[in-house]
Amino acid sequence: MQTILVCDDDKQIVEAIDIYLTGEGFRVIKAYDGYEALELLETNAVDLMIVDVMMPGLDGIRTTLKVRETSSIPIIILSAKSEDNDKILGLNIGADDYISKPFNPLELVARVKSHLRRYTQLGNMTQQTMENVYKCGGLMIHDDNKEVFVDGEPIKLTPIEYNILLLLVKNAGKVFSIDEIYEQIWNEEAIGADNTVAVHIRHIREKIEINPREPRYLKVVWGVGYKIEKQ
Amino acid sequence: MKKGFLPIGLKKYAALLLHISFLCLFLAGVTLVLFNENYGRGVDWMEEESYSATRSFTEQLEADVESIFKYVQYKDLLELDGELNMNADMFCITYISDVSKIYTLGEAISYARRLGYYLNDKYEVVGGPDVHERDQAGLSLPSIEWKTYSPNEVATGPGDAFATVEELSVQVLEILGEYYQVRDYYINRPSNLYFRVSYVDDDGEEHLYTNAADKTQEDLREMGRYLFISGDTLFIDTNLRHVPHNITPELATHNQYMNDDYYILLGLDTTYPYNDPYSEAHAEYQRIREEYLTGLTLVTAGAIGLLFSLACMAALTGHVNGDRKKIELHYVDQLPLEFLLLLFLFLLWAGRVFAERWFPSLLHLIVSDEYLEYALVLCRRTFLYLIALYEFLSLLRNYKARTLWKGSVTCRSLQRVLPMIRHYPLPLRLTVRFLFYLFCNGLILLVFYFMRKYRTLLPVPNTYLLPLIPLGLLQVWVYLLQVRDKAEADKIIKGIFKMSAGDTKYKIDAAGFSETGTEVSQALNTLSDGLETALQEQVKSERLKADLITNVSHDIKTPLTSIINYVDLLKREKIQDKKIQGYLDVLDQKSQRLKTLTEDLVEASKASSGNLKLDISEIDFVELIQQANGEFEERFAARHLEVVSSLPSESLLIAADGRRLWRVIENLYTNTCKYSMENSRVYIDMVSGDGRVSFTIKNISASPLNINADELTERFVRGDVARTTEGSGLGLSIAKSLTELQGGTFNIYIDGDLFKAQVSFPLLTRQADA
User: Fold this and answer.
1) Which domain holds residue B646?
2) Nearest to residue B92, comparing CAs of B148, B160, B24?
3) Structural contact between residues B622 and A193, judged by C-beta atoms closer than 8 angstroms
4) Does the beta-carbon distance from A195 to B626 stay under 8 Å?
5) Does residue B332 belong to any structural domain of this protein?
6) pLDDT of residue B769
7) What ranges in B573-708 are assigned the alpha helix state H?
8) For residue A214, what are the domain limits?
9) Claim to verify: residue A103 and residue A207 sit in the same structural domain
């Protein structure tokens, strides 16, 4: 059973998260400020930590920094601050994910699971240096048997979706415009624009992303094209 | 002024005394120089230094050369072995009766003496009878056969060949006088001029004429000045500056022999050991030269002294002991400027009249007629100078006391009149100003006219032109005033334009402005200050508002999280009661709406206050719309909306923040999804032209749009006034603010149920890169 430390000064929020995670079969230990969280971390084997930013005493940012001194467990920041700057700050100081309040409980659970899978499978997966396997963070494509995994979970894609994803993953970090993707996948010149590519991309996103509106892997570069974020 | 040894009063008198002394010196110098015969010759002649180098010396020498040659001529005629030969034949005459008679020197002298002629102490012929022989004799004159003293004389006129014995005897007497004169001046008496004339006759015998038989040729050459001319050469050996022009012809003329063996040697002892005409002329020359030098020195020293003492007086005048800043004005000084000037003119006129009436008779007491004219001019000018000096000092004291302009009648009356005029309306004021200008011009011209008419009365000639100077100055002044006014107006106008263009930090530099200009500039500067402050306040309050909204939204979000979570947990409890399920749905809906609302609120406040960091880059608007179409395809389909899109096939590049522009488009699309009538068509167009690219989305509203297009983009306004559906009502407002922040334009058009939104951006023109 995996242990998750939840730290928030709002008891009801902690309680709710406890209910959701316990329901999914996790052991949850609760802390109501940064110091408490740090103490519990020392006495318990914690697999993942969810921490609020605005807390009395030691705030979430400083707690994360403190934890990162000794541990590499996944840390998800849960904050009412939803501006870009806050997200960038949180991710820069060592947090693995940033979820802004009010959050969707299902999304939270999904993310927790995803991080845990990645964290626990990280060791054996890095050793598998197979041919025709493309990896990008938690996204993995086995080109030999045309399989796609997100955080270890298999994903079902149509052939065209698979080809688009493969193209993007192979060239991770590069931005492809709609026309470029069309020409590469359909092997035809893109004359006249229609929504085909954009719709496919949306479908891929819906399949591989936890929150398609805030994608982790397949990002939309508005007015330019699409890309797989290099991780 | 430092505290000196003397009190200031004494210093003033000393300066005045000094000034007058120097004036006297100056005038004495002028007089000396003016009456010196060297006046007008410049100063070059000073270098000539000695008399023996001057022209007048040469003239004197020429006269002496003539005398010397007369002596040469007469010596052989009148002398025999160094004595006067009374038996020497002088002339021969023939009477009508053909009787000839030869007169000897003795006979001629006794004949003349009988008639009363004699030689005076200057060897001139004086005296003579009351009745001349010629008159008695009538026409029967004896004819002249020959004259030994003038052997080559040829009669040129009808009466020349005839003469009375008296006339001839007088001629002989004159010759004798001249002979005596040379003998006396140069031979018997010691002379500074030595001469030596030598001819050699046909027999080889030398005839020597000299007053220096005891001196050799070398002795003569060693004297201060010498001259040697020889018959066998054209070269003149001399150290004279000017050679007497008559000496060579005289020398040649008196050579009676047919050879070139002759010479003349002159020597002048420039130490002037003997008292003779040369030493006298030399002494006189030195005296005049010294006088001239003295005069020049006096003029120079006087002029310098005058200037110096004038400066002293100018510095001292008006000051009193003790207080350095205090200026004491005399009684006269307290008159206004105009009266001072009038007084000055009056004094000048009075001085002139006084000088003309009284000076001549006064001066006659001490000055001879010869110098009267000069003395009059001198006295008159000195008198006028003293008046001018007093006037100058008086004006200077006024200037020092700063009452020159302030005390003047003009200034005082202006001070009276100006405040009265100030309350007049502007056109009247301008008219008064113009009339005043005309008045000044007219006044000056009037003065000019009268001065010109009575110009003969003016003490100094041509001073009637003086009023033209203030006339010119007046025009220049008025011109400068106009230029200044216009320059001020220009600066102020520029400032107003800058301020109205939004540069509220702009300040008008009022340095050197007139009173009105300064006031206006200050008022404008205050205005711009106020604007700037207001603007700053507004920016500050907008930011405060945005911060407040952000912070409040954070505080709302935390309880909201719990509400949403627990509503969700309640729903999971699978409550069978339909009623409770209905309540939960409401709770779920409203809490979700509250969530959107808080998020949109933050975004709206940030977008409208410009408190956003934009990441502007080059993006393809067409691609963005294609992406958006892809994102929304299913949502349109769910509402049975048919999308009719016409997009250009080529890329249309604009400069924008891709994510923010997506938010704009997303808002518009979301709106369309929400409010369009089901089963209707949505038109999505993009056109480029005039350097802009415009995106348009058109749809038919499900409910009537009984609202103004402008109001739609205001915050919290929605097409449906009832506010039943989800959404914050901020969507269009955010879209508009975001578009404008990125430099685009956002417009909404409503025509009946047709809703049309247009987003337009300037098109980037990129160089064709194939």
Assistant:
1) 614-762
2) B148
3) yes
4) yes
5) yes
6) 44
7) 578-609, 621-638, 658-675
8) 128-228
9) no
Q: What distance in Å separates the CA atoms of residue A133 and residue A148, rounded to the nearest whole number?
A: 10
User: Nearest by CB to B554, which of A81, A199, A200?
Assistant: A81
Q: Do A148 and A65 share a structural domain?
A: no
Terminal CA-to-CA distance of chain A, rounded, Å? 29
Q: What is the pLDDT of residues B329-369, one digit of tens each?
A: 778 778 888 888 888 888 888 887 887 788 778 877 887 77
Q: What's the pLDDT band for A77 if we cut at 50, 70, 90?
A: very high
Nearest to A16 among B566, B622, B629 (CB): B566
Total domains in the fold of chain A = 2
pLDDT of residue B715: 57
- The ipTM, to two decimals, is 0.85
Residues A7 and A116 in one domain: yes
pLDDT (tens digit per residue) in B370-384: 788 888 888 888 888
Q: Are residues A102 and A180 in the same domain?
A: no
pLDDT at res. B49 = 67
Q: Minimal CA–CA distance to A228: which of A163, A180, A174?
A: A174
Whether A100 and A138 map to the same domain: the answer is: no
pLDDT value for B132: 64
B31's tokens: 């007089």
CA distance A140 to chain B (A): 25
pTM above 0.90, yes or no: no
B19 or B503: which leads in pLDDT: B19
In chain B, residues with a C-beta closer than 8 Å to the C-beta of A100 are: 557
Kind plus residue range of the DSSP H or E element containing B199: strand B193-200
CATH code (residue B675): 3.30.565.10
Q: In angstroms, rounded to a whole number, what is the distance separating the alpha carbons of residues B750 and B387?
A: 95
Residue of B nearest to A226 (CA): B627
CA–CA gap between residue B333 and residue B393 (Å, rounded): 9
- Banded pLDDT at B307 (limits 50, 70, 90): very high
For residue A37, give the amino acid letter: A
Last residue of a domain, one of A98, A124, A150: A124
Q: How many angstroms separate the CA atoms of B73 and B149, rounded?
A: 8
Where a domain ends, among B356, B382, B411? B411
Mean pLDDT of chain B: 82
Interface of B with A (CB under 8 A): 550, 553-555, 557-558, 560-566, 568-569, 591, 595, 599, 602, 613, 619-624, 626-631, 633-634, 647, 649, 654, 656, 658-659, 661-662
Return the CATH number at A147: 1.10.10.10
Q: Do A154 and A118 reside in the same domain of the chain?
A: no
Could A80 and B554 be called an inter-chain contact, meaning their C-beta atoms sit closer than 8 Å?
A: yes
Distance from B714 to chain A by nearest Cα, in Å? 24
How many domains in chain B? 2
Q: Which of B390, B411, B432 is the last residue of a domain?
A: B411
Tens of pLDDT, residue by residue over B185-223, are 777 778 888 888 888 888 878 888 888 777 777 887 888
> Which of A13, A80, A198 shows the shortest C-beta gap to B565?
A13
With beta carbons under 8 A apart, name residues in chain A contacting B553: 80
Task: Give the separation between CA B215 and CA B230, rounded to whole angstroms.
Answer: 18
Contacts across the A-B interface (CB distance below 8 Å): 106
